[in-house]
Structure formats: structure tokens, C-alpha cells
Amino acid sequence: MRGKLSPRYLWLVFACLLGFFSALLFSGMAGADGQAGWHRQYYDEGILINAVSAVDEHTCWAVGTIGYATPASLILKTEDGGLTWSQQGPSFPTSLYAVSAVDSDTCWVGGTSLIMKTTDGGDEWTTQAYAEGYQVNSLSAVDANTCWGVGMSTATSDGFIVKTSDGVNWTLQRGDIEYPLRGVSAIDADTCWVAGGEFYGQGLYNIFGYTRGGIWKTTDGGANWSMVGSADRAYGDVSAIDGQRAWAVGWKTIGIGYIYTPYPESCVTGDGGANWTVTGAPLWPGAPAGLQMIDADSAWLAGKGGYSAGGPNVPGFIYRSDDGGSTWVLQDSSINVISGDISAVDPETAWAVGYTTSYDAVPNVSGHILHTGNGGWQPVPSLLSITPDSGIMGDEVTLAGSGFGVRLPTSKVVFGGAEAEIVSWSDEEIVCRVPDNLPVGPVEVAVMNNGGTSGSLPFTVEYATVITGWAWNYWEGYLSGIAVELYGLDGELLSSATTGDDGHYRMVTALPSGGYKFYFHDPGGVFAPEWHQDKDDFASADVIEITGGRSHSVNETMGYHPPEIMSVSPDSATIGGVVQATISGRHFRDGCTVEIGDAPSAKICDVFLVSSEEIACTIDLSDCPTYEAGPRELLVKNVDGQTASVAFNLIPDAPLSISTITPNHGFQGNEMEYLTVYCSGFYGPFEIMLVAEDGTEYETIEYLISETQVDCYIWLVDVPVGVYDVVIENPGGERAALEDAFSVLENPITVTSTTPDYGYIDTYADVVIEGAGFRDGFTATLKFGKESVIEAEHVEVLSPTRMKCIFDLAGAGNYSYDVVVTDPESGCYGNTGQYFTALYTPYEIYSIVPSQASNLSFFQQITVEGNLGPFAAGTTVQLRKGPRIIQAFSPRKTSDNAITCTVPLWGAEPGVYDVQVVCGDYSYGVARLKEGFTVTSPCGQGSGAALLMLGAALGLLTLAAPARRRWCRARS
Question: What is the mean pLDDT of residues 572-599?
Fold first, then answer.
């Protein structure tokens, strides 16, 4: 019976085979998930994965959205540690943002408008809450009956808190929180933490920005909520392990001037939220984050990236802290996933979810699920070989080994402490370049990642002098094919190289230390050759000091050859016409422009680059005035700003002539006389002058020109009395004259001083003018040019040498005006070099309280409010109506912006008065409020004097009555 086995042994063999294959299966599963650090378990295009909830090391749920334009719900689940993921239940027309699972059978999900639950592992789903216009952002289940949720109104962004205590029905606990709620962490049926907030920044630079938010907590099942976090922070998530210990992450606004920046923070509490330890956090400003607390000291943080201002795209990330948030270590950013949530089972096992985006014709999204089984840390790398094991600076070497992991910002290769440039990186092979400036001889090479540092291997650095650099152009970027030559100081060519497709070059030499010169030139002739630093020749070139056996960088920015013009045909054109021109030369470039200098009305159109040596264009002078005629330059400007010019003549279309001049006379000694000369055929730079009989010329200054006239001014201070020709002269010497056209007359009026010689814009200026030849009826004006004139008011001539007047400077310009005194009868005037400056007033009156009073008031107290300057000695308040001034007395400053004073109004002329405050010394400034105060009269305008007489008469009658009674008694 040796050929048979007992059934008992058959069962034993079967059990052994079963155990063998089971071991293979589970060892395969462990191997599939035995990768160190974080690795991707699931990926699918066209989906977003937003939230994750881990139950144990085998079971995990994740939710998100299918599609982009018309979203549908996505629910995924694994029961084998992530080896396989399956979609659960039917798809609903909504996006899911929250998930919380109790076990393999019981799970809640939430999103746009709804909360759903399954109790059979995901086959069937029941909608438990539905509300249009609301979004569930986070869920946290305690058991099969108790779950909490938070979210926001999609219309107002107000936050809400909901809860179920029977596993079926949901109640609203709070709906009045004025910012979105983003995170919830429930401990039991009584204790729960929630967090949220928002950052608001106005404009590109977050002007007038702010953050607001809070952390809320309940210990009585939600009947009462108290804020335990700061209100000036926006929180992205919260995670707690009991009622005392919790972490939160978010942002606080830091303001600099009017620019506000959200500063990322992590907050840790161990006393129920009474006190928080605040540290920095590696968050991208404004991006929500997934936070998972491991224990009192440790937490994972997953966040999404974004675009930094002026910098590269910031990828999604996973960080971990094991010291209470003081330091965060980057564990993964290699997959560039925009991480949205993270969920951990224990300190070693966790899942994170997110998505990636790309933009072609339409946005494309792809969902990812990441997993770690060793706490997220990469293994300690092992370095086995370096090929080759010797070389010079910049050589590529290959490092072989294991456990290099994915490349993170903390991943590096070091040669004797110097970090190498990485060409490529994989888990078992790294290609890098030997760093610059290493000492010649052996150095130790090691690989570093966030799991640790490998053992080192030796590498021998050989002697070489390596020179690298680039050639570049502002308009075309890096330049390929540029020859780079290195010369000794004796002019000997020692080495050369050519820039590659990336515009960079590399020279490897055995040169000793010393001084050298570099020459860059373009064999194609497009870019101008030059010695380093734009020197023209070898003799003037900069000397570059090179240290032998080291690496150096010599770069050059090259320009184009400047354009050169050989000729232009034709070389002249008549004003009013249109000509076709051809410009011949070399180094003309695409985009070049053509213009005629000092002739802004000349239009150059239809510019066509025939070749680098010829330009065709149209010169249109149809709108060009005659005064732009004359010898000019035709300029060609390349796109780099370099120009070339050639002579070009604009021929006037009318003869040079003068028809008339106005005025035809002026007065000797006057500082400035304004003339208008009507003429034609002139072009610049022309001159207009007065010419005496003996040929003496007195030049004018031209300042306003049109096609038929020139406005100018001339000083008559030193011009003798007499009759003068008015002469206009073109640049070529051509002249035209109007004979005996202007007379200089003897002037009986002079102005010698003005007191004060300044006033404040929008106020009154009381001025005394001194001089000679003044008579009654004279006027005074302030003049700036021909157009800006301020006439004096209430002019009073006190004597032949003195007059006073008032200038109303309302709307005056900030100019130094000529002070002109005029005799209207004879037309004589004087303005001999005296100036009056209108200054900006730094002060302002806002209001008068009260703003009116009767002239029956003996004394009226008023308060002047505004920016009234220093209340120094001499500060006065006035009511002004023309020359009439009512001076207030007892002014006193009653606040920073108010002066109270008393104004005598008895018998004052009714009407509207300006209010003027002289701030201390007059030089401090003056404030004025036009028509700020009204004096009224019960008897109408002009009745003040009558009331005075009436009052006096009544007084006399009152005194007379007793006397009459005494007289009557005496008679009787």
C-alpha cells in the first residue's frame, strides 16, 4: 500500500500548499506596499479626489468628482491596503468634498447640497440631508450613530455646523458663522472641534487685505460652542486626539503699509484651547490644507500648491512634524499632486489624496491616492559605485546604489561637502556633475535624502582650469554659434570654444593662474564682435584674472551691429508734399523705424525693409508746418535703439516775410514785453530781433509758434528809446524785415517793491506797491505770460510813490507773477523786475458755526473748523467783503481743528463775507472759506447805519421822558 496516502496526509499536504501560497500572496502584498516614503497607489484621468478617510491598515475610503464640466460623484474604497481600489455605489450629479468612515461597512460622504450614508460597505447609499446652495467641506464620525459636519453657503460663504446623533437625522447646530468652515475633528458624542476662515485681499498686491476665522469647540454635544482660536486668523483644518490636545493650521495677515500678506501658521494646544503655541507652517498662502494629528507631538500636513509671484509653480506637498510644529520636514512633493486631504491609521500608516491639472484646449484633471507604510520617510540611501571615479570639474558621473528615493528639495549629492548639480535622479541611479572649485585630489562622495546619508565613496579630482559662460542678446536670448576666444596678454590665442544650442560654452584647459582676455564674435555677422565688457580692441580689453585649477564663469551680452546709412534718395523734400525715398546702407534690421529729427509733423509711413542694406519708405509732409523746414537729419533706428543718420533738407513752401506786429510799442525799463509777430516762411532755429538804425540787434525769446505767427518776449530794461525794425532770420542767414515797426517809449512809471511779495492761492493778498509816477485811476495786475492775468481789486493810490490793493488769488497758479502798474489813460505801464509769488496754502477751513448772525448782535461767538495750522502768536480771524474787514478778537484754539473767537457785528453791513484765518505769522499760511459767513439785517440790506441812528434816538427819548415829567410838575 505504499502507493496510497491516507486522507489525513492529503489534508496535511493541502494545508501546507495553502499556507505556502498564502505566504506568497501576503508577501506579494507586502512587497507591493513595502515601498518606503510616499508612493502612488491609484491614478485615473478625468477625476478629482478631494478627501480620504482611513479605517485601518487594510480599509480606506476616498471621495471626489468625475468630470469637469458636468461633475458627478466619485466614491472609492480599498480593503487590501490599497493594492486595489473599487468604485462604490452609483454616481450622483454632485461633487463630493468630505468623507468619514467608521468601519468597512459604515461611511458618510458629503459635498454640494447633500450628505449620504452607507451601512453595507458602499453598495447602497441613502441621502440623509439635502440643501440647495450649501456645501459640506468636512465630516467626522465617532460611531455608527454620531457624525459631525461643517461647510458653507455657496452664496454668502457663511459657515454652518450640523450633527446626527441617531445615524439618520441631521440637525443644524450653527449657521451664523460669518466665514467658511473647512475642518472638523470629533472626539465623542459630546466633544468636537471645528475650524475655518477666509483671507481677503483687494487687487494684485492684496491692498487693504485681512484674514478672519476661528477655532470652535463644544463639550456638551453641540448645545453650546465657544471660540478657542484667534479671530484674526483663517484656519484650513483642525485635528484633535482628545478634548485637550489639538492642532490647527492656517494663516494670519501681516500688513506692511497697505500691502497685506497671509503668513502661514500652525497652532498646537494641550489645555483644551485655552493657550496655543503658534509656529510657522509650510503652507501656500490661501490654499486649504489637510491636517492629521498623530499624537501630542506629531502631525502630517498635506497642502496644495499654486503660483508664486514672479516665481515658479509651487507643487503640492506632504510635510511631517515630530516636535510640536516647531519644524516641518518635507516628505514628498515629487508627484506634484495638489494634495487635498490626509488620513492616518497610526504613526506609520497613512493615505493622502489629491489631483493634478494640465491645460491644453480644455482643463484636464487626474486624481491620485498616495500611501505610506513607514511613516512617510524615505530609506537611508546606499551608494555602491561611482563611474568614473575620477575627473575634472563639470564632468558627468553616475552614482549607482539603492534607496535614493524620489528627488526632494532635501535630496542631494555632495562631493567633500560641495553640492553637485543633478542631471537625473532615480531610486537606483543618479547622474550629476562634479562641483566647481574642489581641491585637486581625493574627496568623499555621499548621497543624502530625508531618510539619512549614505556611506561615502572616494572620487579623485583632476587638475583643470575650466571656463564656462554664455553669450546672450536682449532681443533674441541665448545665442548659439558664437565663437569665444581666450588670449594671453601677449596676444597669443590660447583656447577657444563655441556656444551650443543653449547659448553656453565650456573651455577645459591646463592654464596656470594669470591674466587673460576674452573675445566674442559672431561668424554669421549678425551680432557685433567685442572684447569682454564691450571693449573695441585688444589693447582696451579688460584683463580677467584666472586662478589655475579652478572654475570660472565669463559671460557676455552681445548687441547687434549698429545701422549705417550710406545715402538717401532724394535727399530733400518740399513742405506740403509727399515723396518716395530709398535709404541705402547696412545692418538694417526687422522692426527698424525711420524718422526726421526736429520735424515732429513729418510722417514716415510704409517703411519696408528690402534687405539689411536697403529701406524703402514714404515721407509725407502734407501736414508739416513751414517752421519745421530747414536742414534736418533722417534717422534709422533698429529695435535695439541704435541709430544712424544722414542729412535731409525740408524746403519751405512760402517766402520769408513779416506782415505786422502787436503791440507796436513798449516802455523803456520794463522787465518783459510780450510781442506777437505775424509772419511766414520761417523755420528753426530762426531768430526775431529788434534792429536799431545803427545796426544794434536786441534779441527776443520765442516761446509759442504757429503756422503764421510767433509769440515772443523781449527785455526792454537796456533798450534805448527809439524806433526799431523788426527782423526775422532763418538759420541759413535769410532775412525779412518790417521797418520802423516797434517803438520804445520813455516810461514815467516804475515799480520798485511789493510788500508782501507772496500770497497764498485761494486766499486774499493785501499788497502795498511802491515805485514812482503813480496817480489816481491807475490799475495793478499780476501777469504770468500773456494769458494768466489777475486784476487787483480796490486799488487805492496813497501817493505818487505808493499804492495799495487786494489780489484775490482764488484759482491762481503756483507762479512768480510780474507786478504791473498801468495808467489806463496813456497806456503806460511799469513792470521793472518785481515779482509776486502765489504759494499753495497748506491749510483749509471746513465750516463755520454758526454760519450767519444778525447785525443787531453786539458780539457773536463763532467757531472756525478745519486744518488751521499752528496757533502761534498773531493768529487772527477775519470776516472779509472786499476791502471791508471785520476783525475778530479773543481767538483761542478749542481743539486740534477748531478756533473759537468773538466777532463784533453791531451795525455791520449785511451781506455774505469770506472767512479768512491768518495762521500765526503770515508766513505760516492762510486759510480761506469763500462766502462762509452771512450778516443779516431785520430791515434789509444797508440798514445798519439807520439802526444805529434809531437806537440813538430811542435812547435820547428815553432820557427825555423823566425830565419832561419833572418840568410839568414844576409848572403846576
Answer: 95
> Which residue from 490, 553, 536, 479 is spatially nearest to 516, judged by alpha carbons?
490
Strands of 382-387's sheet in order across: 382-387, 396-402, 429-433, 421-425
C-alpha to C-alpha distance for 138 and 185, rounded to whole angstroms:
9
| pLDDT tens for each residue of 154-188 | 999 999 999 999 999 999 999 999 999 999 999 99
Question: Are the C-beta atoms of residues 556 and 479 closer than 8 Å to each other?
Answer: no
pLDDT at 285: 54
The Cα 778–Cα 823 span in angstroms is 5
Whole-number pLDDT of residue 333: 66
Helix (H) or strand (E) holding 15, with range, is helix 7-32
- Cβ neighbours of residue 884 closer than 8 Å, sequence gap 6 or more: 909
Mean pLDDT over 317-329 rounds to 90
Helix (H/G/I), strand (E/B), else coil: 22: helix
Alpha-carbon distance of 904 to 887, in angstroms, equals 8
Instruction: Supply the DSSP string of 587-645, one letter for each residue.
Output: ---TT-EEEETT-TT-EEEEEEEEETTEEEEEEE-TT--GGG-EEEEEEEE-TTS-EEE
Cell digits of residue 655:
517766402
Q: From the CB of residue 405, how many other CB atoms can be counted at a distance below 10 Å? A: 26
Give me Rg for the CA atoms of the chain: 46
Average pLDDT over residues 282-294: 76
Indicate whether 673 pLDDT > 90: no
Q: Which residues contact 915 (CB under 8 A, 6 or more apart)?
A: 845, 848, 864, 877, 878, 879, 880, 928, 929, 932, 933
Query: How many Å apart are CA 604 and CA 650, to the nearest integer?
Result: 14
Grid cell at residue 910: 449785511
At 255, the pLDDT band (50, 70, 90 cuts) reads: low
Instruction: Count how many residues are written for the chain.
Output: 972
Percentage of the residues of the chain whose pLDDT score is greater than 90: 69
Nearest to 62 by CA among 445, 339, 437: 339
Sequence-separated (6 or more) residues with CB below 8 Å from residue 324 = 268, 277, 279, 296, 297
C-alpha cell at 734: 535769410
In this structure, what DSSP letter does residue 32 have? H
The DSSP secondary-structure symbol of 960 reads: H
Which of the pair, 516 or 939, is modelled with greater confidence?
A: 516
d(CA 903, CA 919): 17
Strand pairing of 578-586 and 493-498? unpaired
List all residues 6 or more positions away from 309 whose beta carbon is below 8 Å from its beta carbon.
none
d(CA 336, CA 946): 94
Task: Write the single-letter amino acid at 448.
Answer: M
In the structure, what pLDDT confidence band is assigned to residue 950 with cuts at 50, 70 and 90? very low
Question: Pairing between strand 643-651 and 572-574?
Answer: parallel
pLDDT tops 80 at residue 593: yes
* Residue listed under C-alpha cell 493778498: 765
Cβ 299 vs Cβ 239: under 8 Å: yes
Q: Which of 778, 692, 682, 685 is nearest to 742 (CA)?
A: 692
Q: Give the contacts of 370 (CB within 8 A, at least 6 positions apart).
A: 38, 39, 40, 41, 318, 332, 335, 337, 339, 351, 352, 353, 354
Residue type, 307: Y
Window from 8-17, 290-299, 644-653, 703-712 with minimum mean pLDDT: 8-17
Q: Is pLDDT at 969 greater than 50 in this prediction?
A: no
Closest C-alpha to 751, from 720, 776, 781, 795: 781
Instruction: Extract the C-alpha cell encoding 882.
Output: 472786499
Q: What is the 3-state secondary structure (H, E, C) of 723-784?
A: EEEEEEECCCCCEEEEEEEEEEECCCCEEEEEECCEEECCCEEEEEEEEECCCCCCEEEEEE
Give pLDDT tens digits for 549-585.
888 999 999 999 999 999 999 999 999 999 999 999 9
